[in-house]
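pinning this so it doesn't scroll away 📌
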Amino acid sequence: TKSDWYTHSRALPPQLAAGCSEEASGEEMRRLIDASPSSGSSDVTPTEFEEWYEPGWEQHPSHDFAVARREAAERIIHNHKNLVSFASRGAGIPGLPASSAPLADPRSISNESLKYPIDVFLRLIV
């Protein structure tokens, strides 16, 4: 199984809690992942975003961005029902006991009123 930098920088820290700490050397990658402004500059440009690759993916057949986009769209279409349900949990009822990653809380209850707008949004993306 191959993971990605987003998982390592955003999903694992809440799971590992005190055993996971940030390193200053990771700031550049956090900026690219979050596409957030850095010290007065504008957001990350699309070209800058598409010029970096995560190590270990060079041998993957879809190292081409057009192929990767089509594959991502296909996976969204294939999994849209689960994605809608998962995305609506972030605005739903928190589970008990409380999770350290509230937007990905496996025990939370989906916000049913948001499922339709989220479904529409995902369809527009694809």
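📌 and the second one:
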Amino acid sequence: MDFRQNLSSLPLELAQILSQTYFLHLLATEPDIVIPHGKSILSMMGQSPLKPPEPQPAAIFHDRVKTAVHSAFWQQALEALSDPTPAVQIDRLKGLLFDVREAISPLFPKNHEILATLSAPVPPTASPLISTSLLLKEILVALRRRAAPVRDSTIDGLLADLDAPLSPIAASPSASPSSAIKSATSQLALLVVNTMKSIISLAETMKADLNQFVLGSMTETQLKDVVVQQAKKREKELVLDIWGDSGKDGRERVQAHWQNWIDELEGEQPSQPRDKWIRRLVQSLSSTKPVSCTIPEPVSTEEPVQDGNQLPPQFFFTAPRLLYAQNYLQALVVAAALRSLTRLPALSQSDPPNDSRGHDFMDRIWTLLKAEIDEEDPSASTKIINFADEVVRARRLVSVPDEQEEAQLRAAVDRTLQYGDAVFLLLQKRLMTAVAHRLCEPTVDVAADHAPERMQTGRTLGAGRADKRPRLDAQATSSVPAMTPVKGFEEPLLIRGIEDILTTLRRHIGWIETVWVDSS
């Protein structure tokens, strides 16, 4: 299943992990898609914390087991501390105080006195719980000095709880001495256990606060570097885990998918490995079937037979954006094919963009196609008649067709939007050949944050859609010189569109290279 289209069919925990990781992927690769205007990367950290939940889907079950084990652990600790024998209490307190020290040590300098106290052996005493409660107060006071102000009320509440039970414990005149001791011990044991649990939880919260403070002191450039590194690490770990088997990561399986996919390259076989996989990607983008990357079914030990346009696991988080690029490329071909039906004279750079001879045709057609690409509601599909009306309107500026000629022109528009049309196939071959050649050229740097987004693949307008897509109007800078116009795509609007999609594809290719350098 494609996680972007089938999150609802996945277990909730796995869906959340995938969604968070994909959000971080977009934040690292195309921040303009997820960062609202006027906001910064830091403002989005709450939606995608850099310290993620356990990235492995296998940990979903593990987390539930861990919760149950922790509950049993604390219950056993409570039972041991409720024993009135000091030696039993001390033996258990040694391990508990060690856990507390491990939890809070990142928040203090190594030579801090509270860490030194916790590192010392638990001294023998007739009242270990009372001594421990006093030590816990010292820990809380030390934590309060280092905590963010928003945590003060929580710490003050824990300190108040430690003070409150001491008076009632001593006053039990109606109970027998042994019963009173047992009751007091149980109450104090419960208080100590609950306070330790709260301190460990508070320490984790304070670490997150500290991380946020450090992030807040970074520049946007520094923060973006952190996001990129975290996105790469988490994305690769998650993919290897999803494609793993029997406790092993899926490195070999992922590599096998990659090689099998490359081996399907048709036609010319480049000598350079990089050129080979890039041309294989362009071959996938040239297909009338939408690109996708499918999560393997856990119940099956055999690889499913795929009849779609499957990408290897390395593209798992890039596939939704590549689907948009695929649709965008098809939109460019459709625009060029429709332009060829108008017989309008070529538009030169000196001509105004909206002159009276109908050169606004490309703007109007592209507006329709762009709406089709970006449309979230599949029921709001652009009708073929809208394209036909625009073509007829432009043709009338050159010559007035009679009824029969207009009918033939509308039929030609219909054919252009169908699979297998000769004009479409010719223009697509020219475009994709140029794109493949251009992408294989080495680049020095591509400084662009914008990317195009979507149209359902296959030109049968109105079928299933990809996800929400961003604006595509941004101009991107590249170290690669401007390409020679592709024959049939000489219109300035189409030239700009091709450069935009090349910038986007280079970004995706660069991401795959840096994350999966061992595979590509």
